[in-house]
Specification:
By secondary structure, this protein is mostly helical. Helices cover 79% and strands 0% of the residues. The longest helix has 30 residues. This is Putative 3-phenylpropionic acid transporter.
């Protein structure tokens, strides 16, 4: 089994489904299941809470008792079953329950694939960056395909395409995989480092809080970007292309980051990310038109990619190797899930008042992040 090919194939297929879920799920609930924006916001907000709890507790537990391959099978199969259960349900209560279940299983596939990548990196020479780039490409492909298909056949196709994508991902999991991924974890004698130890590193709390603010500030974009473009009367055929502009700039940033930013401190990177994020949301609000929205997409390279890169740089230098998985778990649960859950509810309330306010409201995170970095970067030297 070619390890590189296996990893690239899994990244590509997972991000195909991620490209269906992340930009389109809220719009699908509103347009196909006929929920209001506030109802969809409540459902997606609590879904993010379920995602955070799953990432922090369920995924680590399953990973301790199953091999990497079986972890992928478990979460893929569970996600597919829950997705099928969506079909007959149209009530708010039913959709709320299904989304909680879906959010407990499906997003855990991301750390599951990443964990498999880490295992393969420890047991052989693979090019992680090249494999991960297939994931980004898969996301771009999915967004384009879904925008075209939903434009031609309606939003109900979003669910059916997710079912097809998860079924394909499940088929892949039953194909031959690298032998090391089939090994069940063995308990070793000796102490394990708890998450509490992270907070003994004084700067970690500051950095974590900053990235929670910066990543959470994308809540309105992820949940309402699709329907906002519909509000601007953008043809559904072009919505996917517009959303992909952000991903393209994200890919370009990651591709060049190690070349141009090796001497930058994480605090400096986060400061630029916070400023770029603030400018991005102000532009979307101040100029409610398609050209400005497209232009603001370029700032995704700062608001998301630079903030993420800064955190990875920070933990790789400031933390012992044994604590990096714990740091990644907290980051995934709090910065990538829980903060977005809370801000999704705020964004939904603001969107009901005026769509542009949902984006402007995100500076409630980015401006404090700027101030926090300026006040602490010299004192904690991060």
């Amino acid at each position: 089994m070619n390890n590189q090919r296996w990893l690239a194939k899994n990244f590509f297929m997972f991000f195909i489904t991620w490209g269906i879920f992340l930009p389109y799920w809220t719009g699908w609930l509103i347009n196909d299941k006929e929920l209001t924006v506030s109802e969809a916001s409540i459902i997606m907000g609590f879904g993010l809470v379920a995602r955070a709890l799953s990432t922090m507790f369920i995924f680590p537990f399953v990973s301790k008792v199953m091999s990497n391959k079986n972890v992928l099978i478990f979460f893929t199969a569970s996600s597919l079953v829950v997705t099928l259960l969506y079909i007959p349900i149209n009530s708010f209560g039913g959709l709320f329950l299904m989304t909680l279940l879906f959010s407990a299983f499906y997003p855990a596939l991301l750390p599951a694939v990443e964990s498999s990548a880490s295992t393969l990196m420890q047991h052989g020479s693979i090019h992680y960056g090249k494999a991960r780039s297939f994931g980004s490409f898969g996301f771009v492909v999915a967004v384009l395909i879904i925008s075209m298909i939903s434009g031609m056949y309606g939003e109900q196709m979003i669910l059916w395409m997710m079912i097809v994508g998860l079924a394909a991902l499940l088929i892949i999991q039953f194909m031959p995989a690298p032998q090391v991924l089939s090994l069940v974890p063995v308990k070793e004698n000796g102490k394990t480092l708890s998450m509490k130890g992270l907070f003994k590193v004084k700067s970690f709390i500051i950095v974590l809080f900053v990235v929670i603010l910066l990543q959470g500030a994308h809540a309105s974009y992820y949940n309402y970007g699709y329907i906002y473009l519909q509000e601007l009367n953008v043809n559904p055929f072009y919505i996917g292309m517009i959303l992909n502009v952000a991903v393209i700039f994200e890919i370009l940033y990651f591709y060049k980051a190690d070349t141009f930013l090796t001497k930058w401190k994480p605090s400096s990177l986060m400061l630029v990310a916070a400023i770029g994020s603030s400018v991005r949301w102000i532009l979307v609000y101040a100029f409610p038109n398609m050209p400005m929205f497209i232009l603001s997409q370029a700032l995704h390279a700062l608001s998301f990619a630079m903030a993420h890169y800064a955190f990875i740089r920070y933990i790789s230098k400031a933390l012992p190797q044994e604590q990096i998985p714990n740091a990644q778990g907290i980051y995934s649960a709090l910065a990538m899930s829980l903060s977005a859950a809370i801000l999704t509810l705020l964004g939904g309330a603001l969107y009901e008042i005026e769509p542009g306010l949902a984006f402007l409201g995100m500076i409630i995170c980015t401006v404090p992040a700027i101030l926090l970095i300026l006040l602490t970067k010299k004192r904690f030297n991060y």
